[in-house]
Amino acid sequence: MRFHLVFLAVLAGPLLVAQQTPLSSLPYTPSLDTQFMDKQADPCVDFYQYSCGNWNRLNPMPADQDRWNVYRKLTEENERFLWGILAQAARGGASRTANEQKIGDYFGSCMDESAVEKAGAAPLQPGLNRIAGLKSKEDLAEYVAAEHSQGIDSDVLFSFGSSQDFDNSEQVIAFASAGGLGLPDRDYYTKTDAKSEEIRKRYVQHVQRMFQMIGESGPDAQADARTVMAVETDLAKASLTMVEKRDPYNLKHKLTREQLAQLTPEFDWEAYLKNVGAPAFQELNATEPKFFAAMNTLLDRRNLADWRAYLRWHLVHANALYLSASFLGENFEFFGRYLTGATEMPPRWKKCTRLVDRDLGEALGQVFVAKTFAPRTKEEALKMTEEIEGEMGADIQQLNWMSDATKRKALEKLHSILNKIGYPNKWRDYTAVAVVPNDFAQNVAHSTAFEEHRTLAKISQPVDRREWFMTPPTVNAYYDPQMNNVNFPAGVLQPPLYDPKLDDAPNYGNTGATIGHELTHGFDDEGRQFDAQGNLKDWWTPADAKAFEERVSCVRNQYAQYTVIDDIKINSSLTLGEDVADLGGTLLAYLAWKHETAGKDLPAADGLTPDQRFFVGMAQWACGDQRPESKRMHAITDPHSPDQFRINGVVSDMPEFGQAFGCKAGQPMRRVNACRVW
Fold it and tell me: Which has the closest alpha carbon to 52: 617, 463, 502, 515?
């Protein structure tokens, strides 16, 4: 999925919904943001600098951000609008709808810091008591099930849920997946460079401090922290890398319940499934059998005291965001300040707004959509999507490296894509979620348990292709290869990102390229492995698959040369799908724009030709900066290349860009051996 960015005016407080002010009427200039451009830069040498060179100076990074760019800025202003909705809903009153009552009372309880401080570590006590009461390792399954069923600590030891069957996309089956780590990725445990060793040392110190905060002595906390690191390291070593996970065949391992029990005889799956609340089923997908085999070895080798330490840590870690300031602060010091470089915690209103969006997102989304999203926007976004799909179809038909047999399958997949714009046709029903005004910890527990139970209830049921996996206020978009659908929440279709008052060039360059990006994901190195119905099925001839791999290898090799920071290069095997989608999506949007405006007299504006305006519009979603610590973390965990390379890498492969700016072959932004997949 593409993180897509745009500008909104910075406000000093919540946008008061009582004013009934839609985002579409917030002040903005219907023109390209030329103030952010550095016209002293040569667009043929560094187009990102040319398009965005003044953005950082005009938009200094806030202290609570690890990266600050157009996307983050829009997200914050969108959150400020949601804050206004929530602040009004939290005031109470008989006129509130059922959804307004839930989101308002949840938000109000979260904002009640004095109550949270008074509770201190008390919300942890029931879990700590259950851990202390474990009599043998045989009891672990029941404890893990209880934690998973509550949804807050749903990744302790492993994760369990539901997803579409890789072989039958119309059916939902149970999934058991690797988990159990505290650091952001398994590579943090396995890399041997000095920085990784320093991070592990600091992590152990953080875990020790958290143990001391729940009453352990210094020596006991130190010993338990080392135990946690040892257990997690063994789990990490048995886990797939993020690159390995990009191949869906690496995640497809169907087992019966009996086979899973044979793989992990030290874990009582029958007790787990009963206590987690899973419905009856006979077959599931264990994404990483090697992980579960290693988990079984650990269960046998480690004593009960070790497992109690591990469980205590994950209980504290999973709940830290919902506890008093001391826990919140210690969590931030390691995961925020140290790992990402942020210098301040986000203000309370941001945290609470994000939690409501996470836990009651479609209830909040209904209010958001009613106040911000015009039917015209949905119609125009769908029209642009269909135009870009038309260009994809024309492109497939003229490919000289693909056989007619594979073309027919590709066109079948393209024509089967479902476009979902704005918000769900059927809203999620939160009636079962009990939300009260004055109990933040319980509100979190009730809402996360609701989502966990909703997910488990889908096991053995038909797939609901109407379901969304982003909330309507989200400033983002995604393609789902198993659903074979493109999803654009209302939050990503707000002015000035998508603005009917702007001319087509920047609109197609910006939103059009996003649409093309998501569409291209259906045909990137991962998405191409799913057929028109969303089944994991090879529909390519061997020769066509080889020709495709040759073309994506060009992209992989290109991006592997870019430096993230210091001596860290882009892991282009991790970012390949996004890089291919960036390139293909921009080209498709350009072709759609050209088709749409054919025969029209397009004037220059802002000192730029129409073609130049298209490319600057495309580039300016990525304006921004990132802290060094965050760059290092994202180099490991983020499947997207750094923003500047998502722009320069794309335009350097497009002859259309070189022609628009008069670049000569061999200049940095006009590669001699340009890559082209779609």
Answer: 617
Residue 395 burial by Cβ neighbours in a 10 Å radius (0-12, 13-18, 19+): middle
Q: Indicate the pairing of strand 568-569 with strand 563-565.
A: antiparallel
3-state SS string for 130-147: HHHCCCCHHHHHHHHHHH
| Cis-peptide into 496, omega within 30 deg | yes
pLDDT digits (tens, 9 = 90+) for 338-376: 999 999 999 999 999 999 999 999 999 999 999 888 888
The dihedral formed by the CA atoms of 363, 369, 375 and 378, expressed in degrees to the nearest 10 = -90
Q: How far apart are CA 264 and CA 300, in angstroms?
A: 10
SS (H, E, C) 8-22: CCCCCCCCCHHHCCC
CA distance 480 to 468: 10
- The encoded tokens of residue 589 equal 């949007």
Question: pTM above 0.85?
Answer: yes
**What confidence score (pLDDT) does residue 25 get?**
34
User: Nearest-CA neighbor of 224 among 210, 239, 238?
Assistant: 210
Buried b (16+ CB within 10 A) or exposed e, 601-612: eeeebeebbbbb
Q: Give dist(CA 127, CA 311) in Å, integer.
A: 9
* Alpha-carbon separation of residue 406 from 393, 541, 642 (angstroms): 13, 7, 33
Where does the pLDDT of residue 22 fall: very low under 50, low under 70, confident under 90, or very high at 90 and above? Answer: very low
Q: Which helix (H) or strand (E) segment is 226 a member of?
A: helix 218-237
Q: Nearest-CA neighbor of 72 among 55, 94, 97?
A: 55
For tokens 């799956």, the residue is: 269
* Residues in CB range of 55: below 8 A, 6 or more apart: 36, 69, 70, 620, 623, 624
Contact status, residue 188 vs residue 200, Cβ threshold 8 Å: yes
Q: Is a pLDDT exceeding 60 seen at residue 153?
A: yes
In this structure, what DSSP letter does residue 176 have?
A: E
Helix (H) or strand (E) holding 284: strand 283-286
pLDDT at 81: 94
∠ at Cα 262 (257, 268), nearest 5°?
A: 70
**Could you tell me which of 388, 385, 407, 386 has the C-alpha nearest to residue 398?**
407
Beta-strand relationship, 478-480 and 485-489: antiparallel
Nearest-Å Rg of the Cα atoms of the chain is 25
CB burial class (10 A; 0-12, 13-18, 19+) of residue 290?
middle
Q: How many CB atoms lie within 10 A of CB 469?
A: 10
CB atoms within 10 A of CB 27: 6
